[in-house]
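Lab channel / #folding
Pinned by the channel admin:
"Please post every new chain as: sequence first, then the structure tokens as a reply. Keep commentary short and put observations after the output so the thread stays searchable."

First post following the new format, from NK:
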Amino acid sequence: MASTASKLYSDDVSLVVVLLDTNPFFWAIAKNSNNNNPNLSFSNFLNHVLPFLNSILLLNQINQVVVIATGVNSCGYIYDSSSSPPASAAKSEDGNMPGIFSRVIQKLEEFVIKDQELSKDESVVGNPSSLLSGSLSLALCYIQRVFRSGPLHPHPRILCLQGSPDGPEQYVAVMNAIFSAQRSMVPIDSCVVGAQHSAFLQQASYITGGVYIKPQHLDGLFQYLTMVFATDLQSRSFLQLPRPVGVDFRASCFCHKKTIDMGFICSVCLSIFCKHHKKCSTCGSVFNQANPDSTLLPDRKRKTPDA
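Reply from TO:
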């Protein structure tokens, strides 16, 4: 990473960490679906995303872009503009496309091959979810490294380009990442290109103060990205950005990893269960068996304030 001491950062300098969904199962289904956005292949998706990344670098010469690939079994860094030549000076080997395009595509191909090799020995049923929790953790680790590099640094934000459905088994890890981003004042923007809304990303954008959209016409995805997510955080106060109509705050139970509307909560560690249990599987607290319909309370005497 380049030294921040020699750079003059202002309010309009951005560090955008993009989480790119590379789930091959989702893209195979999206390509063959007969919905309002036909022929949504991964290559068409990149035709919108890569020019958007290049436009961020062209808006300011010291803007930074980091791309993290989100696979089914793994996630990893794909591109870091701080360790690459400037976008204006970079060229591909054949000279037919900008250098950022060729480097990102090459790294993506290598990542997808490695990610598919990890799932050869596992039986995949339906459309598995991507490892969103892992990519969010990588993004936050990179941002924390930028914070600790010095007092001068660009304003970071995370952009999730997600198409795969939410994985209830990742609920705890995703929520921990969301609260960590909130504490670090890092907005999480979300752009969902799948058929359904993402409850995880709705909560992430709402809690951290980011922007959540689900484009209706994916053939104009580049316009959505540039008009909503290309602007820096300082300029957002002057724009009328999309506001969330409704946020799905439902949680996933710790026992069956399913999204529930009503359940039981451990009063010690706040673990969520869809059914009453004799003992908390997270912290080991024994619950009161005398009145299981009240709440999940530990089987111990609790002090009450004096009247």
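NK: DSSP finds seven helices and ten strands in the chain.
TO: also worth noting, Residues 301 and 307 are 18 Å apart (CA to CA).
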